[in-house]
Write a structure and sequence with these properties.
single chain; 613 residues; alpha+beta; seven-stranded mixed sheet; 17 helices; 22 strands; 18% strand; elongated
Length: 613
C-alpha cells in the first residue's frame, strides 16, 4: 500500500496568529516548485518552476530529488538528492521556505511548509528593494540627482560663467601645436587628416613631398605648398629601400608596453609603417643630451616634428632581420665599419668597371692616368720652379697646392680639364711644318687624327703614317707622360686607355668639402693633407682616401678634446629619404632657388630652423 503524504501550509498573519491549511496526497508523490500547478507551491524567485520531486518510500522514509540540477538545502548544506526519515523531524529549505517532515497519526508523512521572515532572506539585494547597506531606492535618487547636476545645472552655470571666453571645440582632439615645418597648416586639418577617424596616411604626406626626377613634379609640389602659405619649399622624399625590406628590417618595440601597443595599433587600423609612425606631429621636443647647448636646434618644450626611430634601431642588428642585405651592422659611431669606396678596377671597353673595396685593403685605382702627386706638390722640385716662372698672372707664382688643380665647386670640385688645369705646363702644340705650330684638342680623337693627317698628308691625297702615331704613344712620345698606353690589335699596335676620374667614391655618404671645418677655415680645422696623403704618393693608382678613424679625430669629440669638435649623428653624412646625401632643409632649397649659396639669407626672409621640411 502506497504511503500517503499530508501537506500542512502555515501562513503567519501580520497582526499575529497563523492560518493552517491541510491537504492529503494519496499517490505518495508531490511536485515542488514555483509553478502554480505544483503540489507544493513555493512562490519564491529562488525556486525553479518545477524544482524537485518528493516521494514517500514507506516506513516513514521519503526521498527528494532535484529535477533541474539546481540544489536545495538540507541541514544548511546543498544537495541534489536525499533520503530522509520523517520520524527525525528533518528540515529541507527551498529559497525562503522550509519543509519540515514528521509522522502523522496513521503513519502518514506530514510535510509542514513554513516561510521565513524577510530579514533572513538569503539574497535580499537580488529579489527585493531592501539592501543590507545602501537601499536601491536611495541609490536611484542619488544617481538621478547627480546626473541632473552634472548634465544640466553645471553646463548652464558654466556657460554663464565663461560667457566671454573663446572655446574651440576642435582643441580637445589636438595633442599639441604643429611644428615650424607645418605651422602654415594649423587651420587646414584636412590637408593631413583626409578622412575622419582614420590615421594619417602616406598619401597625405606625399601630396607635398612626393619624389620624382621630373622637374614638373618638383614645380607642382612647390606651387601647391607655397599656395597654402608655406614660407619655404618642401623636401621631396624617396624610399630609403624597398618598402618590403624596410618592414622586415624594422626592429620590434624594445619594451613589453611597446609590443602590446603595437598589437592594438594594428587592430585599430594604426599601422606602424607609415610616415607618421616615425615623424610625430603635435608634440614637443625633448632635451637631447648629445647636442651642444649652443647649437641651433629646436629648444625643449617647443613644437617639433619628432623622429621616433633612429638609424641604429635598424642597423644595429640588421643582418639578423634581413640576411640578404650587403650592409654591415652599425650599432653606433664608435663601431662604424671602415669605408668601402667604389674603386675603378678596370674597363669593359670604354666603360669603367667599379667595385666596392674597403680602405683597409689599400685598393689601387685603375683610372688610366700616369701622375705623381709627390712630384707636382714638391716645394723644391722642377714643377715648383715652373710655377714660379709662369707667375701669378697665369694663376701660379709658387709651388703647386691642391687648389691649383682641384677647384672648389660648392660642396665638391669641378671636373679636371686638361687645357685649364694642365695645359700651362703640358702643351699639346707641335710643329706641323716650317713656321706652322698646331695644337691638338684634348679628348677629341677625331681632331687629333685630323690634325695629324693634315700635317702629314701630301697635297695629292689623304694619308696618315702609322709610324707617327706609334711614336706618339711610344715611351717618350706625346701621350705617354700622362696616359696609360695598352697594346691593341689595331693598325697602330697600341691605344690610349680610357680615363675615369670619379666625382664621388662614397655613394652612400655625403662629404661636403664646402664646410668650413673641412676647408681649413677656423681653429683646429682640417687641411687637405690631414685626410689625403697626396704629398707622399708617386702613383696615380694610389687611392688617397683615409679611413673612418680620420673622421673620428673631430666627429664625436667634445669642445674640450678638440677645437674642431663635431657631432657624430648618422644624419651628419647620411639621409634616410635621399640615400647618398646629407639631410637638406627647405631653407637650403629656397636659397638654391633664389640663386644664393646655402646658408646665406637674403633680407626680408624669416629665419628658418633645421626643422624646415
Amino acid at each position: 500500500m502506497t504511503q500517503a503524504i499530508t501537506l500542512r501550509l502555515i501562513t503567519r498573519q501580520a497582526g499575529g496568529g497563523e492560518i493552517v491549511r491541510t491537504r492529503r496526497i494519496d499517490t505518495g508523490e508531490a511536485l515542488i516548485g514555483r509553478a502554480p500547478g505544483c503540489d507544493i507551491h513555493l512562490p519564491d524567485l529562488a525556486v525553479d518552476m518545477e524544482h524537485a520531486l518528493l516521494r514517500a518510500l514507506g516506513q516513514g522514509r521519503v526521498s527528494i530529488e532535484s529535477l533541474t540540477g539546481e540544489p536545495f538545502q538540507v541541514g544548511g548544506k546543498p544537495a541534489l538528492r536525499v533520503e530522509l526519515d520523517a520520524a527525525n523531524a528533518q528540515v529541507v529549505s527551498f529559497g525562503a521556505y522550509e519543509l519540515v517532515f514528521s509522522l502523522g497519526a496513521e503513519d502518514d508523512v506530514v510535510v509542514t511548509v513554513l516561510r521565513r521572515e524577510d530579514d533572513y532572506h538569503p539574497t535580499p539585494s537580488l529579489f527585493s528593494l531592501k539592501a543590507s547597506v545602501f537601499g536601491r531606492r536611495r541609490m536611484a535618487w542619488t544617481l538621478g540627482l547627480a546626473i541632473l547636476a552634472l548634465c544640466l545645472i553645471l553646463p548652464i552655470a558654466g556657460a554663464a560663467w565663461f560667457r566671454n571666453s573663446h572655446i574651440h571645440p576642435d582643441q580637445q582632439w589636438s595633442t599639441g601645436p604643429l611644428s615650424k615645418a607645418h605651422a602654415f597648416l594649423d587651420k587646414d586639418c584636412q590637408a593631413c587628416h583626409q578622412k575622419a577617424f582614420v590615421a594619417v596616411r602616406d598619401t597625405a604626406c606625399l601630396s607635398c613631398h612626393q619624389s620624382g626626377r621630373d622637374p614638373a613634379i618638383q614645380a607642382a609640389s612647390d606651387a601647391r605648398v607655397t599656395g597654402l602659405g608655406s614660407p619655404f619649399l618642401p623636401l621631396l622624399m624617396s624610399d630609403h629601400a624597398a618598402h618590403a625590406k624596410l618592414i622586415r628590417a624594422m626592429p620590434p618595440p624594445p619594451t613589453i608596453t611597446g609590443k602590446v601597443a603595437g598589437v592594438f595599433q594594428m587592430a585599430l587600423d594604426h599601422p606602424r609603417d607609415r610616415c607618421a609612425s616615425c615623424h610625430r606631429e603635435h608634440t614637443t621636443a625633448p632635451p637631447d643630451p648629445n647636442v651642444p647647448k649652443t647649437a641651433d636646434v629646436v629648444r625643449p618644450g617647443k613644437p617639433a616634428l619628432i623622429v621616433v626611430t633612429d638609424c641604429a634601431g635598424c642597423h644595429s642588428r640588421l643582418k639578423m632581420r634581413l640576411p640578404s642585405t650587403g650592409l654591415i651592422d652599425t650599432p653606433d659611431w664608435n663601431r662604424h665599419p671602415d669605408f668601402r669606396p667604389l674603386v675603378t678596377v678596370g674597363f669593359d671597353g670604354p666603360q669603367p668597371r667599379l667595385q666596392r673595396i674597403s680602405v683597409t685593403q689599400h685598393p689601387l685605382e685603375a683610372n688610366g692616368l700616369t701622375f705623381s702627386h709627390r712630384v707636382h706638390m714638391s716645394a723644391t722640385g722642377g714643377v715648383a720652379r715652373q710655377g714660379e716662372v709662369l707667375g701669378a698672372a697665369k694663376g701660379y707664382g709658387a709651388a703647386l697646392t691642391c687648389q691649383s688643380c682641384h677647384r672648389p665647386d660648392g660642396g665638391g670640385f669641378k671636373p679636371i680639364e686638361m687645357e685649364r688645369d694642365c695645359g700651362a705646363c703640358h702643351s699639346l702644340a707641335f710643329a706641323g711644318g716650317p713656321g706652322n705650330l698646331q695644337t691638338l684638342r684634348h679628348h677629341d680623337m677625331r681632331n687629333i687624327l685630323g690634325v695629324l693627317r693634315g700635317s702629314l698628308t701630301p697635297a695629292n691625297g689623304p694619308h696618315v703614317d702609322p709610324a707617327v702615331l706609334r711614336r706618339a704613344m711610344a715611351p717618350g712620345g706625346l701621350c705617354v707622360d700622362c696616359h696609360t698606353i695598352r697594346p691593341s690589335g689595331g693598325p697602330f699596335g697600341a691605344e690610349i686607355s680610357p680615363v675615369h676620374l670619379a666625382d664621388r667614391v662614397l655613394p652612400w655618404g655625403d662629404f661636403n668639402h664646402g664646410v668650413a671645418a673641412h676647408a681649413g677655415v677656423g681653429a683646429g680645422a682640417a687641411a687637405c693633407a690631414d685626410c689625403h696623403k697626396a704629398a707622399a704618393s708617386d702613383r696615380t693608382q694610389d687611392f688617397l682616401i683615409e679611413g673612418v678613424a680620420t673622421c673620428r679625430a673631430c666627429h664625436g669629440k667634445t669642445e674640450h678634446e678638440t677645437p674642431a669638435f663635431a657631432g657624430a649623428q648618422c644624419s651628419e653624412c647620411h639621409s634616410f629619404h635621399q640615400p647618398g646625401e646629407a639631410p637638406r632643409t627647405g631653407q637650403d632649397r629656397l636659397f638654391t632657388a633664389l640663386g644664393l649659396p646655402a646658408g646665406e639669407k637674403p633680407r626680408g626672409l624669416p629665419t628658418l630652423g633645421p626643422q624646415a621640411p
